[in-house]
Design goal:
Elements (H helix, E strand, L loop, with lengths): L1 H22 L26 E3 L18 H12 L13 H26 L3 E6 L9 H7 L6 H9 L9 H11 L2 E9 L3 H13 L8 E4 L21 H14 L2 E8 L2 H4 L7 E3 L25 E3 L18 H11 L14 H26 L4 E5 L9 H7 L6 H9 L9 H10 L3 E9 L3 H10 L10 E4 L21 H13 L7 E7 L13 E3 L9
Parallel strand pairs: 2-3, 2-5, 3-4, 5-6, 8-9, 8-11, 9-10, 11-12
Antiparallel strand pairs: 1-7
Helix pairs in contact: 1-11, 1-14, 3-6, 11-14
Length: 549
């Protein structure tokens, strides 16, 4: 007992000395038993399923990395919802989205007769206003298959002028029913005047017939030639907001003698601002177009959800409504806030909620791992820590966002790897140094391949890591030439999973053939880095920018 107390005390002093400069004074934390199937704080090694997210991205300052919906899981959830098999093309016959739209429209259809009669009885001219994109025309295939959720106005104009958009499910029948009953149909869209003729052509092409006419279809001015801001739209600033444009255009329609009995849109900004007796919000998690309320007007109920249930595998797209899926634009803004990205795709390297969270995690880990490494070393147990590469030791945010816009490109990733462009993940050089000083060997274990090993080691040394060597750094085989699957990795199918590769490599590291190390802790930013045991503790680092199951 006297020996254990002595070594623990020495380890605590060592951790305090090594960590004081970065973290300030703290007290060493005694190690406690951890289930290999759980993280260092006892949580199950699986992603969160409940999230709180404000639509403006501000939750990135408060929720922590694990509390932000992972963007890859959001993409899979959206794909499930639209019946997209992974091609970026939505099903046009059967999907949760089609089913929800059918239910919404059926419910609205049942009320049209009473709405119409009420207006007529009040001697009014009943009208319905419809937005275009994702209200009458569906943009999913453009947004996903073509743009990969990164909007390109020039490419959008190609789609508009080519009249490529299918009808939004069930809305053709709603428009036809309303027109047959005697409602006057208006269109009101953020598309511009140069796109008006093509939009009307697209609407006719997909079944709306002559329900929308040029004189009752409002598009936004370009500011060029005859396309100027109309006198009935007055704005608080030089650039009108969506709500100012749409609400004041509805006011203008009503000034012509119409009663807008129903206003239909997929964005809350289509519906804010009044000048409609009723609103119908259609689901759309594929983009978010926010706009401030009219000056002096408050409409808190016309706002997106803030609480979500989402499974990591995308299956929630089959059970949650469109409003119950985290909107991908809001997710992007939340991630940007978390990383201190001002909108350039470049993370702050000095101050951000991510840097603060990493500093907090590492400050606690430094004291713990120092004690574990020191004690195990004094007992001649050959201690080691295993550390993943991307977003565990090396930080990929700028590549993932500024370069790839959240759409992974392996060829471009290889350019970044070979150029050794990645900065160190915040605070992790300190954790590695503490573990080494306390007697642990650093073992690298990454999904990067053998052709990237030399460059990865070079990048690690370049940003301040010491102790990684070719012998203790494991990269994945390519299947070409000498780079073949090692005998200690056996897989259930021809293609090994990440968990099979990493857990069996850790088992090898702990075997006599692999050095007979005692892995006291395993660090990774993906749960697949950690699942499978063969480590005293598993420590999950935050990363909402991609998900590798």
């Amino acid at each position: 007992m006297r020996i254990r107390k002595s070594t623990t005390t020495i380890a605590a002093a060592l951790a305090l000395t090594l960590g004081a400069t970065l973290f300030g004074a703290s007290s060493a934390q005694a190690a406690s038993p951890v289930n290999p199937g759980r993280g260092s704080n006892g949580q199950l090694l699986q992603p969160r399923t409940q999230f709180t997210m404000a639509p403006d991205g501000s939750s990135g300052a408060t929720q922590g990395g694990e509390g932000i919906p992972n963007i890859d899981s959001v993409k899979k959830t959206i794909a499930t919802y639209y019946g997209d098999p992974g091609t970026g093309i939505a099903s046009k016959t059967s999907s949760p989205y089609i089913s929800e739209m059918t239910r919404i429209v059926a419910q609205q259809s049942r009320s049209l007769t009473s709405i119409y009669r009420t207006a007529i009885n009040q001697h009014k001219k009943p009208a319905i206003v419809f937005d275009a994109d994702d209200t009458t025309l569906m943009t999913y295939d453009m947004e996903v298959a073509d743009m990969h959720f990164t909007f390109d106005p020039a490419e959008q104009d190609v789609w508009v002028q080519d009249q490529r958009f299918p009808a939004t499910p069930a809305i053709v029948s709603l428009v036809a029913q309303a027109k047959a009953m005697g409602f006057t149909i208006f269109g009101l869209t953020g598309r511009n005047d140069d796109q008006k003729a093509a939009t009307l052509g697209n609407l006719r092409k997909v079944g709306y017939g002559d329900a929308f006419t040029a004189d009752r279809f409002y598009t936004k001015w370009t500011g060029k030639g005859a396309s100027q801001q109309p006198s009935y739209v007055t704005c608080a600033a030089a650039s009108c907001t969506t709500v100012e444009y749409k609400a004041l255009t509805r006011k203008h329609i009503e000034s012509l003698g119409y009663d807008i009995t129903l206003n239909v849109g997929d964005q809350w900004s289509d519906l804010q601002g009044g000048y409609a007796d009723r609103i119908l919000k259609l689901p759309n998690p594929t983009y978010y177009l926010p706009s401030a309320d009219l000056p002096g007007v408050s409409e808190p109920r016309l706002a997106p959800r803030t609480h979500f249930i989402m499974k990591a595998d995308g299956s929630s797209g089959a059970t949650q409504s469109g409003e119950g899926i985290p909107n991908i634009d809001s997710v992007k803004k939340t991630i940007a806030t978390y990383y201190g990205d001002p909108g350039t795709g470049i993370a702050s390297k000095t101050s951000s909620p991510y840097i603060s969270e990493m500093k907090s995690i590492v400050s606690k880990e430094a004291y713990r791992v120092a004690g574990e490494c020191y004690v195990a070393s004094k007992r001649h147990q050959n201690p080691a820590i295993v550390i993943d590469a991307d977003d565990t030791t090396l930080w990929t945010y700028d590549m993932e966002v500024a370069d790839m816009h959240f759409t992974f490109d392996p060829a471009e990733q290889d350019v970044w790897v070979q150029d050794e462009r990645f900065p160190a993940t915040p605070s992790m050089t300190t954790l590695a140094a503490v573990a080494q000083k306390a007697g642990c060997t650093l073992i690298g274990l990454t999904g990067r391949n053998d052709d990237q090993k030399a460059a990865t080691l070079g990048n690690l040394a370049k940003v301040g890591y010491t102790g990684f060597t070719p012998a203790n750094y494991y990269t994945k085989w390519t299947g070409v030439g000498a780079s073949q699957k090692p005998s200690y990795v056996t897989c259930a199918t021809a293609k090994c999973t990440t968990i099979e590769y990493k857990s069996q490599t850790r088992a090898h590291v702990e075997s006599a053939a692999g050095g007979h190390y005692d892995i006291v802790a395993n660090y990774g930013d993906q749960f697949s880095d950690l699942i499978g045991g063969h480590a005293g503790r598993a420590v999950k680092l935050p990363n909402p920018t991609y998900y590798l199951p």
